[in-house]
């Protein structure tokens, strides 16, 4: 069985449309980020105390809010989490109480105020303020290091212009995913950062497959111009790109649907990442190589193509 | 050619056998019935099986993960000599900076002292010693404190009885503690947080205590007299309330003016302890005494309703108030909260600052049920001192018969019995409300005091239900993802798809075996990593198969197409997987706990998929094509 015979789509000539589309998504994401005053950081990065409580009977958010109100815990958020009688309570860090003391206070207050319903504490997360900041720095550093390593590796195995295209595609993927998170007001915690880094890996995987074919075709299709070569390469690997994206998307969708609330944000980021990453390896990474070559190295052509000739 | 392929089969079979061997304990441990489990436990074999089974992270099996921070400012303060107000000022600045900066403690310390133009040798080391030398001395002491703290914590946790705890150092001043299967997080926190500094301090005479209180009272009344007039207007509005009860709620700032409120509170948001309970009848004349009660009869001298504790603490923390206290004394709270009527109280004590005796002379501590009239049926902790400690307490008690001796644990008075007769080497701590607490006190006393207090800066606790739920969901996702991908591959690539599926099964087996053999921890994100591996691992085969199809389309023979497909796709697969592996490694470096689990399964999955999808499938193809020449390939 085969989805399609090697197609013959002219991707390069449609690059302008792709650039506009990407630019638009970019812009929407950035506007949303600006309006929301940066990403919506989860507890890992902003610090504080969060407790997940599961009640045996019916309890409502207002009930919990009024219970907590009596303890005067400052700024708090109460969200339904998972099943009906399960709630996530977040309280921001206060100056006088340590985060751990806040957790104790929340536990105690809920226990005292909602007496008639049995409950179980499912999860407690306490992050001191400095730890949150450290993690934030570490996360940014990690993404940065990953990108630098990729730049060096791709630059070495291919050519610098390819590395630039790959990095542009990665930024594209992560920023658009980040923008989507901002629009939906989803929180970004450590797990989501892990998802972003995985998106980087996945998208790069796709991009390299295309690049590799371009590299090969540069040697075979000597008489052709760059646009033809890139188009042919993308078309040749297209069925692979679609199949791998499909299997990956399927498993990520399963995680999103059945993986439970703990993995929800992670799976959502991956879901977006697979789509955007696949798109970018076709419509961003290679067209950028083309644009660059046309503007700066048009006459000279790519070194890799030259090597074979000599 | 055939011989070469046979060797490859042997490699694959050996690997498969190893995987089964490595996974056997995991299978065994998870399929044991309750009865078999008990039987093996009695034989002492269960632990060894459990040890070789795949280790589950705290997010799956439930438990606590804590990050502790050693209080370095406390440590250097203890080590310092010639402490003066300037020292306190600088150290306070260091503390503040430490709370917001991510810099190293000693770097901050060095900078702050430089800013104030004070050489470190004024307080540490010898005269004229260089800053560098002193810093390295402090650094060494800090490291010693961490090592010692870890020993003591290990001791406490062992005695508390946690299976497979983990206590590791993280960075320069943090300790990571992992306690699987903890049911009562509160208890575990107390176990770890308690410095376990045991001190015996004599109470000051009741007369001295009441005089001190009166002095503070007068000072406050004088200060308030100024602002009282204007406040009268607001009071009148609440007269109705006053008639109902003699206790009245007022705000701290109303009572003591803005001075009484510490700088922490300038945020302006109302906090719980800004409203307090005062004795309305006397609070104008006696603002401090109004906060106190003589509840509880003769046994307790001064009790304070819990609502007022924060207010009292604030007053006592004021520099001008501190000066009113006897220079050799300090006020301490009782650790126990007691209830009279519907109000809760803590007791306030005035004790001598210098301890008569500390816990370092302690040799043993045990929990018992109290005897005698007062403590019958209540938990007590019996402790034994060494000979030197016994001599000291004997001398002290003999000289102070009929006075009260406070037993102070971590700056809180556990009990303050009256000395009836001369004490010996063994004695008793009473006044502990619950058996659990008594056990805890005994454990921390036996394990010894921490060299510095520790602060819990991060905690993650996962209850057993959520853990089980996560395991269920993780496994479910893995199985479902696996089935879908396997079916798709057969559907799309026919027989070749089956070969790819064999590789995928082998991939998962080896991945799990590596986890078990090398004792990696499986977390929920780790399970997500496995699910992702399933989706991505087939990529290598997809690349090869698509390539083979292309080569077949060009008109190559089956064998030639397979050869070309593998050799041409190899470089692509290698480059693509290596970059993914790089991001996974970065993730491992940066992540903690659960995230690391993800990086681990993803990395192993990538590496193993290179082997199974390229090597194993190739061997299978070779075997098939070598038997007979295929005219058509099912792909």
Poorly predicted sequence stretches spanning 5 or more consecutive residues of chain B: 229-247, 251-274
* CATH architecture classification of the largest domain in chain A: Up-down Bundle
Helix content of chain A: 55-70%
CATH topology of the largest domain in chain B: Multidrug efflux transporter AcrB transmembrane fold
Percent of sequence in beta strands of chain A: 5-15%
Strand order of the largest sheet of chain A: 2-3-1-4
Find the CATH topology of the largest domain in chain A. Answer: Multidrug efflux transporter AcrB transmembrane fold
Beta strands of chain B, count: 19
**Major sheet details of chain B:** 8 strands, mixed
Q: N- to C-terminal separation of chain A?
A: 42 Å
Oligomeric form of this entry? Answer: heterodimer
What is the CA-based Rg of chain B, rounded? Answer: 35 Å
Q: What is the CATH level 1 assignment of the largest domain in chain A?
A: Mainly Alpha
How does CATH name the architecture of the largest domain in chain B? Up-down Bundle
DSSP strand content of chain B: 15-25%
- CATH H-level homologous superfamily name of the largest domain in chain B: Multidrug efflux transporter AcrB transmembrane domain
Query: SSE string of chain A, helix = H, strand = E?
Result: HHEHEEHEHHHHHH
Overview of the structural elements:
The complex is a heterodimer of chains A (310) and B (635). Chain A has 310 residues and is of the alpha+beta class. Chain A has helices at 15-35, 43-46, 61-71, 99-113, 129-157, 160-183, 190-220, 226-258, 264-296, 303-309, and strands spanning 48-55, 76-80, 86-91, 119-127. Chain A has 2 domains: 12-41 and 132-309, Multidrug efflux transporter AcrB transmembrane domain (Multidrug efflux transporter AcrB transmembrane fold), CATH 1.20.1640.10; 48-127, Alpha-Beta Plaits (2-Layer Sandwich). Chain A starts with 14 loop residues before the first helix and ends with a helix. Chain B contains 21 helices and 19 strands. In chain B, a hairpin with a 2-residue loop joins strand 10 and strand 11. In chain B, strands 5, 8, 9, 10, 11, 12, 15 and 16 form an 8-stranded mixed beta sheet that branches. Chain B has a 4-stranded antiparallel beta sheet with strand order 3-4-2-18. A 3-stranded antiparallel beta sheet of chain B has the order 13-14-17. In chain B, 57% of the residues lie in helices and 16% in strands. Chain B is of the alpha+beta class and 635 residues long. Chain B has 4 domains: 2-58 and 463-627, Multidrug efflux transporter AcrB transmembrane fold (Up-down Bundle), CATH 1.20.1640.10; 63-193, no CATH class; 206-229 and 240-262 and 272-325, no CATH class; 355-446, Gyrase A, domain 2. At the A-B interface, helix 4, strand 4, helix 5, helix 7 and helix 8 of A face helix 9, strand 18, helix 18, helix 19 and helix 20 of B.
